[in-house]
């Protein structure tokens, strides 16, 4: 008998080359402190997408998913196969899990249609009595259209990722106060 984590369907999709952040020319970093311990913050990170959503940015992700569907992409229709556990190869909406280091790191690769390759890395590290969340989006643009896309969408992306990082921290701090 195989578990849902052994299913080949969870690992379907393109196999990109290795993630090399220094080789990716464009990045957007959001770093926020949290009074919650790292394990609580990472618990909020590993539940992203699916029914939990994207921490206050769901409407914008749904809009981006609709654009993706119009362009022939997967859109937001995939959800998650498991609401809590993540393994490399799992689909989360239009992202694909590339790496998970329990308690500290989640690396996602975008499978939406866009003129380049996008990655989102979320790191959680200890900081004093609490932790620090670092959400970084990397983008490898195609020469012309990718740079135009990045430049024109940067303000919206900055707001989305800043809000998402802030709301992850807030959710973790609320969860950390519960008995």
Automatic annotation (TrEMBL):
SUPFAM superfamilies from the UniProt entry: Bet v1-like
Please give the residue ranges the record annotates as the region Disordered. 1-22
- Give the highest taxon in the source lineage: Bacteria
By what name is this protein known? DUF2867 domain-containing protein
Q: Which organism is it from?
A: Aquisphaera giovannonii
């Amino acid at each position: 008998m195989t578990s849902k984590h052994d299913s080949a369907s969870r690992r379907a999709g393109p196999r990109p080359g290795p993630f090399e952040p220094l080789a990716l020319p464009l990045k957007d970093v959001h770093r926020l402190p949290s009074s919650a311990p790292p394990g609580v913050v990472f618990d909020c990170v590993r539940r992203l997408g699916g029914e939990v959503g994207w921490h206050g940015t769901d409407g914008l992700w749904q809009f981006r998913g609709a654009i993706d569907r119009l362009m022939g992409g997967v859109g937001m229709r995939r959800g998650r196969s498991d609401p809590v556990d993540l393994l490399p190869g799992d689909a989360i909406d239009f992202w694909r899990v590339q790496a998970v280091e329990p308690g500290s790191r989640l690396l996602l690769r975008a499978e939406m249609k866009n003129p380049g390759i996008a990655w989102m890395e979320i790191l959680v590290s200890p900081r004093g009595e609490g932790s620090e969340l670092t959400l970084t989006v990397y983008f490898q643009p195609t020469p012309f259209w990718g740079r135009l896309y990045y430049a024109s969408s940067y303000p919206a992306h900055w707001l989305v990722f800043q809000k998402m990082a802030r709301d992850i921290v807030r959710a973790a701090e609320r969860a950390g106060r519960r008995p």
